[in-house]
């Protein structure tokens, strides 16, 4: 565990060559006109079927890129429920958030999956800045945009957050009551993990890591030089040596089976100043919308879903749905697990977004 944690938490100066190597590992995305990398992804818009619409909009002066999915036989003169889908840490809209956005559109919803500011195809400098306040604002920005989209019923807005996007979605809905129902999939409390380490393995190094993050910010201000934490690329040998299934499967997903050049495990070291002082469970009692939390029974991250679920005491109703046999990463792509999650999500949104 210590070796794994240090692999993810170590500071490094990442040069352009390393990033290019990571981006060239897999080019399956090039075969899809929308660069989608998930199974069953749309390759063209066909009249009468689910369609994809790449869009751009400004959020606090930063250009955000997103995909809007419209249901079969979409008619802008009618009213549809809408759902925002927030991607995992390191993820982008072309991966699992796009998959779930498409599947929910197939169930009749207008959905939006956007790249977070500073990440993926969206704008913002320094690149790979990863701060909770920005990720939370990304979700509110998706709501701003989709609520103006033709055919969206503003009284029927739901939210779905995956992995880190799940924690940030919960943070957004604490105060944003435009969201009438909220769901998470394989929720990841990024602040807790960045602070304490995965499975609370790094509590004894918190102050040292905060000092390094502070030094990184000082270097940014003095010299304009960005220090990155995380991983730019991995070899097959590196992956095979990772002892923890969650991170090993994560490497396989992001750097092999579902690789995309816009997706990376890098984040600015200075972001840790904000990440480590944040926790999804702070003021979590403000969540009062109907809640569904989904996690795999074999997910090593399930402890975070369990902890947060128990602390959300004011939700109008809440349910924890466990997918038997699924790990965290397998809920991103494995067809039988995705089907279970989508069916549960559809029933949840249908029940709660139809309530006015």
- What is the molecular shape? globular
Number of strands: 11
Distance between the termini: 48 Å
List the secondary-structure elements in sequence, H or E: HEHEEEHEHEHEHHEHHEHEHEHH
Strand order of the largest sheet: 2-3-5-4-6-7-10-11
CATH superfamily: Alpha/Beta hydrolase fold, catalytic domain
What is the fold-level CATH name, i.e. the topology? Rossmann fold
- Computed over alpha carbons, the radius of gyration is 19 Å
The residue fraction in helices comes out at 25-40%
Biggest beta sheet attributes: 8 strands, mixed
Structural class: alpha/beta
| CATH second-level architecture | 3-Layer(aba) Sandwich
Give the mean pLDDT: 92
Name of the top-level CATH class: Alpha Beta
Counting structural domains, the number is: 1
Report the sheet-strand fraction: 15-25%
| Total helical segments | 13
Description of the structure:
The protein is an alpha/beta fold and 356 residues long. It has one domain (2-353): Alpha/Beta hydrolase fold, catalytic domain (Rossmann fold), CATH 3.40.50.1820. It is built from 13 helices and eleven strands. It has helices spanning 2-9, 16-23, 96-106, 132-146, 164-175, 190-196, 206-223, 236-241, 245-257, 272-275, 302-311, 330-333, 335-353, and strands at residues 11-12, 51-59, 62-70, 80-86, 110-114, 152-162, 181-185, 228-229, 267-268, 291-296, 318-323. The strands form two sheets. The protein has an eight-stranded mixed β-sheet, with helices on both faces. Strands 1-8-9 form a three-stranded antiparallel β-sheet, with no helix packed on it. Strand 2 (51-59) and strand 3 form a beta hairpin. The longest helix has 19 residues, at 335-353. It starts with a helix and ends with a helix. 50% of the residues are buried. Residues 1-26 have low confidence and may be disordered.
